[in-house]
Amino acid sequence: MAIDDFTNEELLAYIDERLPVGRATELERQLRLSTPLLQRVIQLMQSVEHGEVTLGAMWRRGRWSCPPRAVWAGFLDGRLGDGLSQYLRFHLETAGCRLCEACVRDLNRGGATEGEDRVQKIFQSSTGALQSRH
Ligand SMILES: [Zn+2]
């Protein structure tokens, strides 16, 4: 199956958790392998936030613009560029999304023995990086 086999509509449905399970599983598998696909997902999320795409369901479900778990996995793996990583850090730290914080902690717990420490390091280093921009 080709990497670009997913339409924007499908990616938006995935972000909105409306994609059928089988298709979502396949997408998550490809997200682990394909950084460009991961970037497409985040860019679509950004375009939604900027009002370029209208998705009523995103407002209704009450946690608008939370990146899917597979996107956070890519973030932790360091597979995203500066701009996209900054967007995710903003969501996590400035917006202070507790759901995503829990998701990131959970991902770390599964991937590293000292999960909590690793989360702290990510928070500290990225906070420093944001402050140094001003
Ligand atoms: Zn969130």
Structural notes for this entry:
The chain has 8 helices and no strands. It has 134 residues and is mainly α. The protein has one domain (3-131). It starts with 7 loop residues before the first helix and ends with a helix. The relative contact order is 0.10. Zinc ion (ZN) binds next to helix 7. Residues 63, 66, 91, 97, 99-100 line the site of zinc ion.
Keywords:
134 residues; mainly alpha; globular; binds zinc ion
List the helices and strands and how they pair.
Layout: H1 8-15, H2 21-33, H3 35-49, H4 56-60, H5 69-76, H6 82-94, H7 98-111, H8 115-131
The structure holds zinc ion.
Mean pLDDT: 77
Main structural class: mainly alpha
Strand content: under 5%
Largest sheet: none
- Uncertain spans, ≥5 residues at pLDDT below 50? 57-63, 112-116
Shape: globular
Tell me how many strands there are.
Answer: 0
Give me the strand/helix succession: HHHHHHHH
Q: Determine the number of helices (DSSP H or I, runs of at least 4 residues).
A: 8
Portion of residues within helices: 55-70%
Query: Number of domains in the coordinates?
Result: 1
CA radius of gyration: 15 Å
Distinct compounds present: zinc ion
* Ends apart, CA distance between termini: 44 Å
